[in-house]
Amino acid sequence: MFDVNKVREDFPILKRKINGKPLIYFDNAATTQKPRQVVAAVARFYLYYNANVHRGFHTLSQEASKAYEEAHEVLAKFINAYSWEEVVDVANTTDGLNLVAWGWGLHNLRPGDEVVVSVMEHHSNMLPWRAVAERVGARVKYVSVTEEGLLNYEELERVVSEKTKVVAFPMASNVVGTINDSRRIARLAHSVGAIAVGDGAQYVPHIPTDVRELELDFIAFSGHKMLGPTGIGVLWGRKDILESMKPFRVGGDTIKDVTLDSVVWHDLPWRHVAGTPNIAGMIGLAEAVRYLTRLGMKDVREHDVALVRETFKGFEELGDDIVVLGPKNPQVRTGLVAFNVRDLHHHTVGKALDLLGIAVRTGGHCAHPLHYRLGFNGSVRASYYVYNTLEEVRSFIEALKLIISLRERLAKEPVEEVCTGT
Ligand SMILES: Cc1ncc(COP(=O)(O)O)c(C=O)c1O
Fold first, then answer.
1. What is the pTM of this model?
2. Containing domain of residue 46, as a range?
3. How far is the CA of 200 from the centre of ligand 1 (A)?
């Protein structure tokens, strides 16, 4: 197991004090912090070999192209892709899922076809499918979740039919934390000739990912949730499907040749990456992947499990003042816990935690239907990563105890709506 205290040294931000208290950063499912190594890799690119890629014979362009292409290889190895050509750089998970919905869906869905998604979805894996379905006259069907926050597999098996062309689902939920059985879902989708699309935003950063074992057709994930820069993510796709797809975004870099009445599309992955790519982002993300690989993804996962276990242990002391969303078994969930404090608004709890130096996310976490299904209009979410410690979890539990002891006073505070669209 890696030495968390040593890891923390790579993240100067963790030395900050917030409201006079040491920062405890528990908002990693929204975005993680960045280690020095990632920032340095991005800075090195901009300071010493910045140039556009795939466009010039000059030395800087060659160096930039090499680093950018190598980054695809690093990413491919990280998820055990068959080839780096299957790694399409996109802006983030949302962008990757839109690329599948519009790039594949628009050309392959017909009126009357069905797209199956779950109630557990982040809006990013629900709204693109709804938009495309509306455009082509297809139908989106929803599979429910159980009271415990598990995907209802029996219902999934009933809903998937010959009409189904896509089954899209979260590989791990950003609210209930549930890790879904990707292979089971992929096999079910394939049994009716549908494609299986995994939203990997909360999975790939936390759990060893082997795309060959998972048997999915597409997986999208974000760099910024795994120590990398913002503005970069990956859409991994099966090569034959990526090859069969017409580029959804077209322009420079997507082509080999253009005449006034014809176009020859580029090889993979470039045909799906229109215009100047996020070169620095890819270089930074590759550095983040090198960092995680040094820690070892199995240990990253174990560390998450230990933090979640400690959280539940602490919650036991708080009794029924805490209502957890999702299953209680740390082994079946990813490294986050969403909950509510009885009789307190989630924003009030978040604000009070911030006064104590603890950063959590509050709101609907871009998963409103799931919250409504579970009987809430929002929740507080503590989400962990490699630099978080068991001591921090203990301080968090103590902070919650204090908040609960002040509940009557806090409940009178006006609730501030901090942001919209979440
Ligand atoms: C499960 C899930 N899917 C998709 C997303 C969207 O990620 P991004 O905002 O990086 O596109 C998130 C972000 O929180 C997420 O948790």
1. 0.97
2. 38-293
3. 8
